[in-house]
Give the backbone structure.
Amino acid sequence: MKSEELFQLINFCKTIQKEGTDPFDLNVKRYLETLKEYLKKWKSFDDLLIDAEAISELAKIIELQGKWIRDRSASFYIDPVLMELKLKMLEPAQLANAFFESWHPIISMDRITSKRLKEGLDYWNALLPFSERKEEFPPPSTLETAFDIEDLIDLNILSRTEFEDAIKEVSKELEERGRIEYHAFIYEDEFEDSVKKAYLTSYLVSEGKAQLDVNPLEEEVFISPSNANEEANTGDVKSIPISLSYEDWMRWKRKQKKN
Amino acid sequence: MEEETEEELRTRTEKKVKKAAQLLFFRRHRVPGVKGWELKKALGDNYMEVIGVLNAALDKFGMEVKRISEEGEEKGESGEKTERDRFMIVLKNHLIEKASGARIDDVAMLSATLAYIISKQGKAPRKAVEDFLSAKFPKHRVFFALDRYIKQGYLGEDDKVLHIGWRTRAEVDRKTLLDLILAA
């Protein structure tokens, strides 16, 4: 057994503890025998430390195995698959009723007492005027703008390649669909995906790869791919706010279902 | 030293029971209830006996003092490490029809989440719970609901894994919940 294998064993133990998977997936007895066998071969202090950590993690797994058996033998052990199936079948009202019937709420009240009021008053009297305490409230480090794509990349929330691929995909779709009503273009089956698409589309517009055509009287907004021959940027830059609400998306979705 | 008369003893006990009731009914911290050491400080070494008397009085009103260990396990009136345990008053029976202003679908989501997590030995990855609830509720509502349950103490979260929170252990009869769901 090499030290890498020890690390693997430690990681496996940690995964079981973290994710709550079956602790009997790990053959503790076999690992303990192997560790015992190799104990004499460890030379460095670091090897011994890793060996000790492996023993410690195995001990935690044994503890989990004990708990696992206790839980399974407890009267409320239910097969998770059966429970999941049952939960999917029940109506919200039935689930809520089951909760209410097994619920014994804590009885706890908040009440202000005269003693506490007096303490509050003393605090107020001892408090310096706000003008003298401004250093206690430094102005927040405000962002000039919202997070832009560079910030998201710096924060490792998004990779540049991932973002560029997504932009290309939206751009390609717009080219295929041609001029189209804005919301009809960005709405997807999931609201979350619609928001993502709206964000990516705004990027296309800012980059001059798509253009918006707003009809204020009809309250319609159309989007179309920019003509390559057109001048990309005339210097006349303006922001166009377009609302994207969950309710509107739901209405669209219902309409789609009817059609 | 003069021996305490029966009358004096009764008066002293009544005072202690009243004090215990006030400590337990009125919230002193963010989390309801009081720790064993706080009761000991306020009521003396025999605070468990005082709690016993209070429990007998509360029983008439369908309430009881519940004791929860730091690890969240429910305990009776005896046991070790009492001073670190949290004591709180709960409704003994579910006699009242409504004791919450929560929306029915929020309660349904909580009920399903608890049953799901209990059936998975008390913890489950948050993503798995979100996916499970999303089958019936919009994702954005699921996210907010889970965060709210965590804030309320019904759930706990460690490293994107959800587990049963202290409040569920105190308030919810888990066996009854599972039985009712399976029988529905």
